[in-house]
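[job 0417] fold request received: Transmembrane protein 120B
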Amino acid sequence: MKSDPFTFSHTPCLGSSIPQETHRIYKQKLEELTSLQTLCSSSINKQKTRLKDLKHTLQRYKNHASREEAELIQQMSANIKERQNIFFDMEAYLPKKNGLYLNLVLGNVNVTLLSNQAKFAYKDEYEKFKLYLTIILLLGAVACRFVLHYRVTDEVFNFLLVWYYCTLTIRESILISNGSR
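[job 0417] inference complete; emitting structure tokens
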């Protein structure tokens, strides 16, 4: 009796539960990460609103304060700014809602890159994309102007320019949503 090449009874790896267990642990850690992100985001938002309220209260009392109180208010305002910067850095690693443009183009997709390495890799890839396509489009413009005088090539070149611009705006929006300036 010949063995059927499509049966997997002789393959010890496929009968193993290691991939299933690894996947179960992965799903569990992903759920933990999601809940921690939600908890951290809500905590930061609460603290930001409290800081905003404190800042407005300090502004009201600043005009009627004595010199010593004004210095204290100045120190507290500096501490508030420092806290806001810390919260900004913390939020860079948390998922956030996309802007209007990304929602229109991509929908409600999380485009937050969670590690610095991923952010730098994406920015590096973006810069390479810009450089290569700029060179290609520059050569294409020269070719359309001096070598190829056809309406079809002109239309193809215009399509490539529009595609390039749209792609750049999407990539720039992703970079901005990940904290790039």
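[job 0417] notes: Helices lie at 18-62, 67-91, 100-106, 116-147, 151-177. The chain has two domains: 16-94, 96-181.
[job 0417] exit 0
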